Fold these 2 entries.
Entry 1:
Amino acid sequence: MKPALFLDRDGIIIHDHGYNKNPEEVRLIDNIQSLISFFRNQDFLVFIITNQSGIGRTWISLDDYYQVSKRMLELLTFKPQAIDHIFFAPYFEASPIGSDLAKTNLEFYHSEWGVNQSGQWSTSWRKPNPGMLLEANNKYGPINFSNSVIIGDRVTDLLAGYHAGIRKGYLKINSPEPGQNHVIDLEEFNHFKNKHEGQFELVHSYNDIVCENN
Ligand SMILES: [Mg+2]
């Protein structure tokens, strides 16, 4: 069973401008390439799991999302392939875990829709729910979740990993971007850390993660 590295997209692989929609503005976060290479070289699967509620809100189009993701993949130069699969959740309402219904998967580039039996978008995919990680397991597994790693810039990212069985995660602290109103809520993180078993740390740089796992 292979472990996997699960990465959020906005704020983790590329800078988060708030509902990224312009491919020309896509810039990689410092050292993300060496981070991915490090885990790839240890035979980790690598997945992106990204909430994209801007699509459900109709603030960004599916094509905007596609173009930004395409540009990101062009910039990630690890060969033969930096990322195994991108899963995205276009929904804008959270739902309780447990509503994971059968999905009709429509291939869209490297990405997937989640559609439930009623033909509605399934919100079990939206983090903090673990639907996207479980789908990665269905598609590429069995994944060794207990040796896997999750990296995000929100506690909800870590929670999605936790709900799938991951016990090692990092919350990346970024300097705020223009147009970005999200800042790390340290109180929320500390509450999460105290309540959940595992190794969950704050990091300012991907070098810290590489050093710690070397
Ligand atoms: Mg993010």
Note: The mean pLDDT is 83.
Entry 2:
Amino acid sequence: MALEHLIFPSGELGANTALFWCDRTREGVLVDPGGEPDEIFDLLLSNGVSLVTIVLTHAHIDNIAAVGRLREDTSCGVALHREDWPLWEAIEEQCRELRMPVPDLPEIDEALCEGVPVLFGRERLDVMHLPGHSPGHCGFLADELSLCLVGDACFSSAAGRCDLWRGDETRQEKTLDRIQRFPAHWTLLPGHGPSFSSADVPRSRRLRSTNF
Ligand SMILES: [Zn+2]
């Protein structure tokens, strides 16, 4: 039994998107589809993956722009932490600010919760609530790969910004403390750019002012 995965950038802002699937049942989970739904759909087909759920680290437009189309094409569920549901509903405001087209978004089906794993086939991703960049920001842990998707909480050279839509520096500090406690051999994959390890977190504490 093995957990298969692919990581690739998608969308205008190059969000790191991840596809995980169970090699026995071919059921899969997609994280943060930021755009290019046709290419992602082709990837599902070419790997024979049946998409169970799209899970989102948070509800900024660059992480969610392809959700509507993929949901329509696959009938998968969509899961987001409840504290980010207001951001999901404010999609028009986000797009206006960034001068990006407003995508059609479906209803959220499931509230992500720390302690409640995301299940697909015989595999799982564990959920960590990592607020600060946004209130409902989550990370996803793939234990057997020693891999955690930390979204926009922390990058290889800076922490995620907290000045957008109910970001919170105090919560972000606690989130960075948690990320710093990961064993050094774990791969931490941010929402954009290259991966890093927990040893890089101290120098990453400077808040990032660019990116989304
Ligand atoms: Zn973001």
Note: The helical segments are 37-46, 61-64, 67-74, 85-89, 91-98, 169-180.
